[in-house]
């Protein structure tokens, strides 16, 4: 071996060691956004670190949203660069064959919360970090083909379809090796490179943007676009990024970046089954080839398996350049993997060789007064301290800022009588000061506030201003305005004319005031701060009831035209139009609406007139100057302005007396309000069902419940799913929301085990009473989810045994302990303390949900085993006879009993006691008097106390926070009991259950003998225990919800008492994060949002949905004419029997109030509130329900012949129809009556 060979081997050895060190560095430093060491309960809450990551705007970062419909018909690309103190945005939209662009727009970075990005017509608002973004665009875009300016409105919600990922968690270490090979002796430098790469906070997340789009005034179109969201916080010289969102749920991201530390390549694939695996590109040139047309296939590798992506459409490319010189090129194209199409986007970024200076915008004057400035009673507009609204009020501070930036207009000179002067005046009038202090007391209702306000206003109006302050006002006016003799005196309250709340028209203004009368008008302006309109408005929006007051005194323009100019259409929000309302005289007449003004509508860009009143008080030159001033102010403040002005008729000089943002533009549209809480859909082929949840949560749920309790339910259920990968942090998988209703994603729940469930459909019957999946759905499951491990059946069996012999006992004990702990947390001396206890209750309640889910698994297991014995195999179909036999077995003797089945029994016993006390139905007509009779009865009182003790926490919609329980509204019981008392003969005991041996002997589909019989009897006993434990945990879970409801109600009362809320029920229409922010900030936008949610909430009620469906949610299809005329329907047997009787069709519990003994109840679903009807009806038919649902359990307890999953039963049958319910055969049919029988 010569020296050259030795040197070569030595070099290779050194490179191997260095490469190994690199790989160790990259492996050790890898991070997970949701560390597996985190406590499970942390996944149900937004963590403080997440608010820090998403809730602030960083300098020199880039944020991008890319989303496309799966057919490529509509696509949206949004890019935001933060450079220096500015936001730079670019928007590209394709829809309906049109390509629209909003070129790069500059705006100021948010001075307050970094959760809102505002740049011209674009608004991005982060509602919950990594969970919900609101994206709104309302403005002009340029049609690329025609150059025409088109008005576009776009609004909706971006929700995730994956957890957020650290960008470099899947960095390709081979690329770091390549750097080492090029410079083999730079280990330290490249080690730092690896550390810097892996420590970066760059994030990626896949999601769905559900929006409503209108272009050029066309009809609004609803769309669902899916794609990638990225957020980078590092410098890049060059980058190529390729991402794909496939129709079946697979998502790919590959990126190569060149920065100062070197070149970095990484890639990962988020699969449809929620697994995330590294992704490797075989040949990077194939990426560029897709763009230039000479390559049709890209070969990736994921989890050591090939993954080929082929091009099936020509690429569409666009590009833009940033203010710092960076060039970004974007290519879109449709691709395919196997038989699944996807939308791909290829982004290339190239930094300028010489980076340009960061863009700047003209400064907006802002100043905070300090020291002696805060003690000055009077300030001129030109004084910098006048810009501080805390001492001069909103109106005066705005005028001071306008004075300092006037360009093409003037601001009439004037002064501000500061809040210091106001406080000095109060100190000199202690009686008024005491009234104001009393007004600020917590717990004052509106009437008290109005009464005190009237006294304060009268006292201020009659008070005498000090001579010193009078001289200060008049002397400063003379210095500032010269010999002018007429002034406008206007109120300027602290907090007035803010971006979230306006007090327009509520405070007093006085025109044409002589200088000697100014002090008197100042007093009247102070008094107007306590008018009933102001106090009511503040009370309604939870604002401080007695803010300090400043007063503006300003030179009057006497020979002029006054008016208001909106630099966008104030109704439609169209920024291409400027709307001016004007008249000769005082501007207050325009604002107040007492006089109809002249109207001028201009095209903003051209300055031409679209429409104009004839004759018009504004001449053409005045219109042009107003337009110029409006454009200047709009550009300076970064959005459309509402400008109050006066035009001098002699000189046509423009005088601006107010400029503020046009209010209401940021308000959510009706579509956004309706869809705010809808969950995202991974694909257009997700499988959903109302089974089970349609009974448990049959009504729309409040925003507070959805935002605080949905994730705990989802995480708890996924933690019990044996085939699930893990519990996601940032989005729900199993429980999803549509129109504030909860639905199951049963594809995620069951198709993960497609291999087993395709052979054995019993789990579908247990959940929904029928087969739910089609052949196509199983095919989708095979593509998305891997086969289960070959040892999965053994692992599942071991888990089931563990549940039966151990967990079922432990979970029941856990539920009792957690219920007591949840009750102990109903406390808090302040809203913040009570909200903190509510957060603790959420964690405790999650444990109770897990306990209930575990007992439900126990119950489902016993059902599956019994069904397998009846079928005689571990797979195969179920005949009607088999289903009937299964129902008969479950209806056999039950020594345990379910607590939910005690509700009808307890009410029946209460009715019997009332009859024994001599009470008749007429005495129960008045609910209040009837309740007193029940409470005071000799026999009934004890039964009433027992019922309330055991079941008082239950009632309609019992899991939601806004539900009405029997304890809260005991009068709900009176009507139910009245019906029973009216028919004493119906108060019979439930039929005795057949013994298990006699049931087994009567089975038609299978003979059970020997060891099989012994095993069957053992499993039946376990099934009864399982149902009892499940219902017991459900009862405790409802108690936990009641404890949380009590805490929330008390929180609402505290917020009302402290003046934060106008009424306590409004608290249910906040989200949980909003409550945290509101208690700290008292921002009125939260109250306004909650009010609008409450207003729209009733529209969600009464909607009907398909029992199961595929794709995004929709309302139920109407029954066909043939179906409506049919005389018989079929369903799944719950409890055998054959009965004939009159139908009572009830789509709601209110419809069932007049149910008569002996009728057959036909309804959509049943929950605990329907229980009182079970003792008097003859049979039960429901459209929704599973074999283990509430109605099924109670019907079996009472031996009621019953069917479930009878679609359209409430449409086909009518109350009064004579029907035959044959629950043995699984049918309900109309009976033809002879005329004599009628």
From TrEMBL:
Q: Which Pfam families match?
A: PEP-utilizers, PPDK_N
Q: Where is the Pyruvate phosphate dikinase AMP/ATP-binding domain?
A: 391-612
Where does the record locate the signal sequence feature? none
InterPro entries reported in the protein's UniProt record? ATP_grasp_subdomain_1 (IPR013815), PEP-util_enz_mobile_dom (IPR008279), PEP_Utilizing_Enz (IPR051549), Phosphohistidine_dom_sf (IPR036637), PPDK_AMP/ATP-bd (IPR002192)
User: Which residue intervals define the domain PEP-utilising enzyme mobile in the entry?
Assistant: 1156-1226
Q: Name one GO molecular function term.
A: ATP binding
Read off the PANTHER family from this record.
Answer: PHOSPHOENOLPYRUVATE SYNTHASE-RELATED, PPDK_N DOMAIN-CONTAINING PROTEIN
> What is stated as this protein's family in its record?
Belongs to the PEP-utilizing enzyme family.
Spell out the protein name for this chain.
Answer: Phosphoenolpyruvate synthase
Q: Which organism is it from?
A: Pristionchus pacificus (Parasitic nematode worm)
